[in-house]
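Backbone-to-sequence.
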């Protein structure tokens, strides 16, 4: 385990680019800790260790991913997410405690949040829907990333037409949140749900458009026909 962590960090440093560091920072309002390695290359590096990781026990993989998260580097968080998702067939209900802690303690930007939640935690709640109620608890957090996580975890399930009841309940909790990254998160969730449940999402947006922030509203209706967009946007 330590060998893989050390080797990956060595490769990231070897491929670090000051220009990419500066360019990458422009995508974030908050200061982010980055090596300056493009995401495609980060994943290419990670994938070279797939067979070794798959041969490990889940406990060892989680411990390795914990080390990557602890570094604070965004690229290392992506590698942690990749390896965690790689062993998704081994998820058990108790693993939610690990994911919950990572979201609360380590996630510090929208990219790490979305990468962890879209795939790892989104897959987990599809496997164990009883934990959807925990997402509603996240939506009530004071931590902006935990609130965003409650919504973006459901992006992929939403595209499959799943969990519409919870999607609307989480949107209700986040509806008037003042944080634009939270607004974009739940707007994205509603947009994903609209791919299968267009009428229900449209009706929800129209019902709430008087108070829904315009940022969230625009995201929610992005994939709808022009005539519906006009109705939704009308004041």
């Amino acid at each position: 385990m330590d060998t893989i962590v050390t080797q990956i960090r060595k490769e990231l440093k070897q491929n670090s680019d000051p220009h990419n560091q500066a360019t990458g920072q422009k995508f974030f309002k908050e200061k982010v800790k980055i090596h300056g390695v493009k995401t495609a290359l980060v994943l290419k590096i990670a994938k070279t260790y797939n067979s070794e990781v798959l041969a490990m026990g889940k406990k060892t993989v989680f411990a390795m991913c914990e080390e990557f998260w602890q570094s604070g580097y965004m690229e290392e968080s992506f590698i942690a997410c990749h390896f965690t998702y790689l062993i998704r067939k081994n998820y058990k209900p108790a693993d939610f405690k690990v994911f919950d802690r990572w979201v609360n303690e380590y996630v510090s930007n929208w990219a790490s949040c979305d990468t962890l939640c879209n795939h790892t935690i989104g897959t987990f709640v599809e496997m164990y829907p009883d934990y959807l109620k925990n997402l509603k608890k996240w939506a009530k957090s004071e931590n902006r990333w935990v609130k965003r996580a409650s919504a973006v975890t459901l992006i992929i399930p939403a595209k499959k037409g799943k969990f519409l009841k919870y999607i609307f309940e989480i949107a209700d909790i986040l509806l008037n949140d003042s944080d634009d990254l939270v607004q974009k998160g739940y707007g994205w969730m509603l947009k994903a749900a609209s791919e299968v449940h267009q009428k229900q999402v449209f009706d929800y947006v129209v019902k709430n458009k008087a108070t829904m922030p315009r940022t969230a509203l625009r995201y929610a209706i992005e994939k709808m026909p022009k005539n519906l967009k006009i109705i939704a946007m009308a004041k």
